Structures are given as structure tokens and as C-alpha cells.
Amino acid sequence: MDGSREETARLVLRASTVDDAEAYMATIDDVVVNAMGWTPKSVRRAHQARRLDRQLRVPPPTLVLVCDRTDGAVLGVLSIGRSDGVVTVGLWFGPSGRGRGLAAEALSAYLDMLAEAGLTFVCLECAVDHTAMRRVAERCGFEEAARYRHRLPDRTVVPSVRYMVDLSGTT
To answer: Is pLDDT above 60 for 134?
Structure first.
């Protein structure tokens, strides 16, 4: 792995490029918008953040596309950011990537990328009732650290859970 690419049995994780804008935006459908509590403004910001990633070009890649290993189709997105001073990982899959058991595989590979880049602690946050994401987090070694009420961009407040994982010693 060169820091911007990781492969699994079914997936390729790679840093985004300017040429990926259309495929990236295709992963954002109503299911993703509703789950994230996004507004049209926040979807535009997500698109702009992808362009900012190209300008930054610092490891680890802050925005990684999850692609099908056989045909290269973009299936989903992984990202890192900061929340309350903690590095937070986010992920979503577009329609063609859902229901295939790919989230844990992709997240595990991304955690390897982050560990190789020197990150030691990472958190993942999701709604308490997002059972699938909670199972993915736990399969990838995350442990529940806190529960809180989170305000989404659309101003909805949802009961949420923060998971943490210690990546030190994983490289």
C-alpha cells in the first residue's frame, strides 16, 4: 500500500481525484441524504470538500473512494474529519454498494491505511438506531465510548453513539 490505495478481496480503496466528482456524487442518493440529515447546502459542501481533498494532498487521504475490484465502479466513500478534537471516520455506500456486506471490509482496510499513516485513535459516530452501522463498527474493533444527542445538518436531533478504536500496534 502506498498510503493512498488499499486492496481487499472485493474492493479497492483509493484517494479521490478531480475526475471522480460525478461518481462521488452518484453515491449520494436520498437514502444517504436522509441518514446523514443533510440539506441541499450540505450536499454542495460535501462536493466542495472532495475538491479540497485534492488541494491538500496530505496523508492519509481524507476522502477515499470504495471501488469494486472487478470493474472499478465507485460503490461508496470513506472520509476522516475532526469532531470535538477527535479524528472521526465516516462512510456511506451508494445504491449499488448496499446490502452486499462491503462496509466492514472497506472500513477495516481504511483503518489499516490510517494506522500506516500514524493515526492511533479514531472514532466513528452513528445514530443509536442505525443497527447495521453499529454492527460494522463492532466487527472492526470499535468499542462504544459515549452516547449523546447529536444535531444533524438539517437540525434534527438524534440519539447517537460514539465508538472508539485504538490503532496503535496494528501496523
So the answer is: yes
Contact 11, 106 (CB under 8 A): yes
* Average pLDDT across the chain, whole number: 85
Q: What is the DSSP string of 66-121?
A: EEETTT--EEEEEEEEEETTEEEEEEEE-GGGTTSS-HHHHHHHHHHHHHHTT--E
pLDDT at 41: 73
> With 90 as the cut, is the pLDDT of residue 28 above it?
no
Rounded to a whole number of angstroms, the distance between the first and last alpha carbons of the chain is 12
Cα–Cα–Cα angle for 170, 121, 16, nearest 5°?
Answer: 85
Q: How many helices (H) and strands (E) does the chain have?
A: 5, 8
Cell numbers 440529515 correspond to 37
Q: Are 131 and 138 in contact (CB under 8 A)?
A: no
Q: Are 171 and 115 in contact (CB under 8 A)?
A: yes
User: pLDDT tier at 49 (50, 70, 90 boundaries)?
Assistant: low
Residues in Cβ contact with 90 at an 8 Å cutoff, skipping those fewer than 6 apart: 78, 79, 80, 81, 124
CA distances from 108 to 80, 91, 98, 115 (A): 14, 12, 17, 11
Inter-axis angle of helices 103-116 and 131-139, nearest 10 = 50
